[in-house]
Amino acid sequence: DAGITQSPRHKVTETGTPVTLRCHQTENHRYMYWYRQDPGHGLRLIHYSYGVKDTDKGEVSDGYSVSRSKTEDFLLTLESATSSQTSVYFCAIRRTSGTDTQYFGPGTRLTVL
Amino acid sequence: GQQVMQIPQYQHVQEGEDFTTYCNSSTTLSNIQWYKQRPGGHPVFLIQLVKSGEVKKQKRLTFQFGEAKKNSSLHITATQTTDVGTYFCAGLGGNKLVFGAGTILRVKS
Question: How far, in Å, CA of A78 to CA of B39, rounded?
Fold first, then answer.
């Protein structure tokens, strides 16, 4: 499991409210990623981080911001949630020693009413 | 940007039948990775292919990487109910993985 946790695991919120999702890792990996998963779209990258305070946009970044003030934590914020942001959100770390691959957290199911 | 297409979207098979999912990239890939996601779970890494024409096997699963490094396939021989889930391919582009939409496999016992 690569020591990845996500919180909260489930959240229901209302349109227009801010929401912050947290990803925490225990193995000191440099790269961290936020994806959303929707039926028929697979996993789409929202933002990723390549170090503390170093972040970059993915393919579906509009409406989302991220922050990484510590190696172990990567936060995803929806400034003003919309119903189109109802989704399952996965955090992942990239392990580059040995096989270069990603390990995913358990996911957060977000519903925006 | 890089796009990864995956077919079919769904596949229902009888237990014991074979299953194949195909992945095609719009650009040449440095490597391709396959992941499996069980219902209600998170994606789990299965394998990585790097070399042109590479074939790797994991028990009943056979993974192939095309000669041009733009396509790949996953074949499962004699499916079992434990194979149920969604199978994703993903191509590495720089620091990012681009995922296919996935193939949902259902197995009827």
Answer: 26
* Range name among A25-29, A94-98, B37-41 with the lowest pLDDT average: A94-98
The pLDDT mean for chain B works out to 95
Backbone phi, then psi, for B81, in 5-degree steps? Answer: -60, -25
CB atoms within 10 A of CB A68: 20
Cβ distance of B1 and A59 shorter than 8 Å: yes
CB-based contact, A10 to chain B, within 8 Å: no
Q: Which of B49, B27, B44 is nearest to B86 (CA)?
A: B44
pLDDT value of residue A1 = 60
- B58-85 tens-digit pLDDT: 999 999 999 999 999 999 999 999 999 9
Q: Determine which of B4, B49, B97 to mutate to test the interface with A (most A C-beta atoms within 10 Å).
A: B97
What is the per-residue pLDDT across A55-79, written as a single tens digit (0 to 9) for each? 999 999 999 999 999 999 999 999 9
Q: CB–CB of A48 and B42 under 8 A?
A: no
